[in-house]
């Protein structure tokens, strides 16, 4: 239950930052889509209207998240996991497709993306599993149930294909595992194979990396079983790189190659990043002004209403506008982690940390790909990018953080 007395204990900085980001998002969305509607002879407010409709549902979800005591999710975690797997499986059979991906389920009046909701569901399930395990996960065998639990939804999401969301779930899992104070050796086992995958096409760099890894494990006197496992996995994934590369879709491979060499396909996959960098760079310090961005208004930036909306903000509001946006996100992430340390309930602590990792990873990857620092993986900017499912999940996450804030000291009965 919740009362007006409890609202006084809510986190005001979270309310302010979420509200400010929503305002920025709607202004950027209007600027990014207004001219498109005029040129096509359609409704210039089409995207804004749809986002407002999603906002109504998202506010209800946020209210529900704040109303319900977070500890109830712990009791429901097996059901939450079952619903998540069922919905991801349902996408494979009854899901609707767009742009070569099958990610959405239509309910007639409403279309939603199960993979988006799987992020928040994963946080609840992982928090329930890791509760009371802080500092106790020291061996590989203790990690196997956790890895199996996370791997199933990740593989189903990757199959859609939705590499970006799969990476978000992996990042959430690793972040929450770190919050559980798992053994550093386990992180070596989990993270070093990714380095091997990246370096394996460059033979000598990969061999040098394996030598450094071998010496590091030896000097830190890692157990022989974990030593052999770490080296075996790294060598195995490196040798299997051609198979892993073949599992990626053509457009995913081109995105990676274009990231390494943006000039490889300047009119194809590399076009997104090049135009985004031009737009952000042309904004300079204070930007060109609202509705005055040339790259934005002339529609040079693809999907600028969703994945590349930061390019719109960078061009029209400049470096200062981008800095304000980052500051608002950092306050939300900081408050999420602060709540994780302040609350006395272990489950709530893990949930707050998971939400903090989720938002931080979204912001880092989205801004990284729009500035050309990371490959394009299709991750939206929370509360700013166009997308109903993302908006609902993010605002519900804010509501859950407020629920934790209002109940963290158990002073109100």
Describe this structure as you would to a colleague.
It is globular and about 65 Å long. It is mostly helical and 413 residues long. Helix 6 (140-158) runs antiparallel to helix 7. Helices cover 72% and strands 3% of the residues.
Considering the chains and any ligands shown, give keywords for the structure:
413 residues, mainly alpha, 3-stranded antiparallel β-sheet, 17 helices, 3 strands, 3% strand
Give the radius of gyration: 22 Å
Structural shape: globular
Strand content range:
under 5%
How does the major sheet shape up?
3 strands, antiparallel
Strand order of the largest sheet: 1-2-3
Low-confidence blocks of residues? none
Q: What's the multimeric state?
A: single chain
Order of helices and strands: HHHHEEEHHHHHHHHHHHHH
Structural class by SSE content? mainly alpha
**Helix fraction bin:** over 70%
Count the domains: 1
Distance between the termini: 10 Å
Mean pLDDT level:
85
Number of strands: 3
Number of discrete helical segments: 17
SSE blueprint:
Layout (H helix, E strand, L loop, with lengths): L3 H4 L4 H29 L5 H22 L3 H24 L1 E3 L2 E6 L4 E2 L1 H17 L9 H19 L4 H17 L4 H16 L3 H17 L4 H16 L1 H7 L2 H11 L8 H14 L11 H4 L11 H34 L3 H25 L17 H20 L6
Antiparallel strand pairs: 1-2, 2-3
Helix pairs in contact: 2-3, 2-15, 3-17, 4-5, 4-6, 5-6, 5-7, 5-16, 5-17, 6-7, 7-16, 8-10, 9-10, 13-15, 15-16, 16-17
């Amino acid at each position: 239950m919740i009362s007006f007395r409890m609202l006084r204990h809510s986190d005001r900085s979270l309310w302010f930052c979420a509200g400010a980001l929503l305002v920025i998002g709607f202004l950027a969305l209007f600027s990014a889509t207004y001219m498109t509607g005029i040129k096509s002879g359609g409704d210039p407010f089409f995207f804004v209207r749809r986002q407002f409709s999603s906002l109504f549902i998202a506010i209800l979800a946020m209210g529900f998240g704040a109303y319900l005591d977070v500890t109830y999710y712990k009791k429901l975690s097996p059901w939450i996991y079952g619903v998540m797997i069922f919905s991801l499986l349902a996408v494979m059979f009854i899901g609707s497709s767009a742009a070569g991906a099958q990610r959405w389920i239509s309910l007639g009046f409403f279309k939603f993306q199960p993979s988006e909701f799987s992020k928040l569901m994963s946080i609840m399930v992982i928090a329930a599993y890791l509760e009371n395990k802080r500092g106790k996960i020291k061996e590989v065998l203790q990690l196997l149930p956790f890895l199996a639990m996370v791997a199933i939804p990740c593989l189903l999401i990757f199959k859609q294909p939705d590499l970006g969301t799969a990476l978000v779930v992996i990042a959430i899992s690793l972040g929450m595992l770190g919050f559980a104070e798992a053994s550093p050796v386990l992180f070596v086992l989990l993270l070093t194979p990714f380095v091997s995958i990246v370096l394996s096409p460059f033979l000598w760099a990969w061999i040098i990396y394996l030598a450094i890894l071998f010496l590091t494990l030896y000097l830190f006197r890692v157990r022989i079983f974990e030593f052999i496992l770490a080296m075996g996995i790294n060598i195995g994934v490196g040798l299997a790189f051609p198979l892993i590369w073949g599992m990626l879709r053509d457009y995913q491979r081109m995105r990676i190659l274009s990231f390494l060499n943006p000039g490889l396909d300047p009119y194809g996959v590399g076009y997104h990043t090049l135009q985004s960098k031009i737009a952000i760079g042309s904004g300079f310090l204070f930007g060109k002004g609202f509705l005055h961005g040339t790259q934005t208004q002339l529609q040079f930036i693809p999907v600028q209403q969703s994945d590349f909306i930061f390019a719109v903000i960078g061009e029209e509001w400049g470096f200062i506008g981008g800095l304000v946006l980052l500051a608002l996100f950092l306050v939300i992430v900081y408050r999420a982690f602060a709540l994780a340390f302040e609350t006395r309930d272990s489950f709530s602590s893990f949930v707050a940390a998971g939400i903090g990792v989720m938002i931080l990873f979204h912001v880092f990857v989205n801004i990284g790909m729009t500035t050309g620092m990371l490959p394009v993986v299709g991750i939206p900017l929370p509360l700013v990018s166009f997308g109903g499912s993302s908006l609902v999940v993010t605002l519900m996450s804010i509501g859950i953080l407020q629920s934790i804030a209002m109940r963290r000291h158990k002073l109100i009965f």
